[in-house]
Write a structure and sequence with these properties.
Elements lengths: L4 H26 L1 H5 L11 H18 L5 H24 L1 H4 L4 H20 L14 H16 L12 H25 L10
Helix pairs in contact: 1-3, 3-4, 4-6, 4-8, 7-8
Length: about 200
């Protein structure tokens, strides 16, 4: 899809600001209590979705303005937006009794979160044709996700989730790490040109 330069520029900054806003909201309004109780060395593994919203915003800037490529960073961002966007939509829809009890306000909040994380999943494809992945990239990216999964479910830094679901969520999240890292690699290897020319 071809967009005019002013429209492309406006959409670029709108998506950038939405991601920065998602990072601020998630980190400082959703996770502050958990962050306050988490050891300093594990803080990186607590706000998964806000972190990758920020990383996506940084990837947008790198693709558009950086004089050189940051393919490993952008691959991590791409796969992370896929993984955590999908994971969040899954748990919100699979365990509604935990995330939104009866009430219109709770339902509207849940719908907003679902739409926001669907957006997180799909916006990652804006990066697709701008990342040149190499086979060795798989090791640090998958390693980061598996380390995050270990932190979440063994060291108990996982986000709000029903405790009765943890025996399922742990192996499922590990499978998502593997699937979206390998799947993301194959998508990026095959991407020739963007569906929407927005980032550069």
């Amino acid at each position: 899809m071809k967009l005019t330069a002013p429209v492309r520029n406006a959409l670029f900054w709108l998506i950038f600001l939405l991601n920065v806003g998602g990072f601020i909201y998630g980190t400082f309004f959703f996770y502050p209590a958990q962050l306050a109780q988490t050891p300093l060395y594990l803080l990186l593994f607590v706000p998964d979705c806000p972190l990758f919203s920020l990383l996506f915003a940084l990837s947008m800037l790198l693709v558009r303005f950086a004089p050189r490529r940051f393919d490993l960073f952008n691959f991590l961002t791409f796969a992370g937006c896929l993984k955590y966007g999908f994971w969040t939509v899954f748990v919100l829809t699979a365990y509604p009794e935990f995330y939104y009890p009866v009430g219109l306000g709770a339902l509207l909040s849940a719908l907003m979160l679902i739409l926001a994380h669907m957006g997180m999943f799909f916006e990652s494809f804006l990066l697709a044709s701008f990342v040149r992945v190499k086979p060795w990239h798989l090791v640090p990216v998958l390693g980061f996700f598996l380390l995050s999964d270990y932190s979440d479910y063994v060291l108990l830094t996982y986000p709000a989730a029903p405790t009765y679901a943890l025996p399922l969520l742990f192996p499922l999240t590990v499978l998502m790490s593997i699937f979206f890292t390998l799947g993301g690699y194959l998508i990026l290897r095959g991407a020739k040109r963007p569906l929407v020319r927005l980032l550069a």
